[in-house]
Amino acid sequence: MRILVAEDHATLARSIANGLREEGFAVDLTADGDEALQLTRANPYDCLVLDVMLPSRDGWSILQHLRKTGAQTPVLMLTARDAIEDRVKGLNLGADDYLVKPFAWDELLARVRALVRRGHGQKSPVVQVGDLQIDTAGKTVQRAGKPISLSGREYALLEYLAHREGKVVSRGEIWDHLYDQTDETTSNVVDVYIGYLRQKIDRDFEQKLIHTRRGLGYVLSADL
């Protein structure tokens, strides 16, 4: 899943970005409001972590613009202000959640995960596809009760496919949601990791869950 972090406090911004990357998220980082808005126009983010006070354009202005143009990307607002009226303003402008600084890392992570699930229409942290179970909170995977060990990149790909269960996902969509601006891997890496997943998810089972739609992409489903 790909996250945009717009925060002008350099130390905090790096801390959030590094923490999210360690949790398997692709993260784009900016300290400028105008650049943040440009990035949202160019990339399909799964969640925005948006500071209220940004140079060039504040977080409220960015949020208001996104909602006026129909963008439904989940937004978590960050602010040093604890006034009720500020929280009300953010929520009325279309924010999905609100977190006051200073905050606990575990709380920010939990809120981001919840917003990502909500953005993909998932309420439970556990996604079930046939006999495949994916715990998006614990980042564990098992099939038919057997634990499956995945690398961080393999898990990220599987989770994205699971959130889009039954839908064909193109290579371009996978790339856009799993890789950030700093990634220098080649485009065929998607096919490589699909192969890795098939070895771990499908190889030992008669029913295959990962399917190729030639010329279109991939679909995770127990009904095909």
The separation of the N and C termini measures: 25 Å
Secondary-structure class: alpha/beta
One letter per element, helices H and strands E, the order comes to EHEHEHEHEHEEEEHHHEE
Assign the CATH class of the largest domain. Answer: Alpha Beta
Rg on CA atoms, Å? 18 Å
**Beta strand count:** 11
CATH homologous superfamily of the largest domain - what is it?
Response regulator
Gross geometry: elongated
Tell me the strand percentage band. 15-25%
Mean pLDDT over all positions = 92
Described by its quaternary structure, the protein is single chain
Task: Give a quick rundown of the structure.
The protein is of the alpha/beta class. The protein has helices at 10-22, 33-42, 59-68, 84-92, 105-119, 152-163, 171-178, 189-201, and strands at residues 2-6, 26-30, 47-51, 75-79, 97-100, 126-129, 132-135, 140-143, 146-148, 210-213, 217-220. β4, α4 (84-92) and β5 form a beta-alpha-beta unit.
Write up this protein.
The chain has 224 residues and is an alpha/beta fold. The chain folds into two domains: 2-119, Rossmann fold (3-Layer(aba) Sandwich), CATH 3.40.50.2300; 126-220, Orthogonal Bundle (Arc Repressor Mutant, subunit A), CATH 1.10.10.10. Helices cover 40% and strands 21% of the residues. The chain has a five-stranded parallel beta sheet, sandwiched between helices. The protein has a four-stranded antiparallel beta sheet with strand order 6-7-8-9, covered by helices on one side. Strands 10-11 form a two-stranded antiparallel sheet. α6 crosses α8 (189-201). The radius of gyration is 18 Å and the shape is elongated.
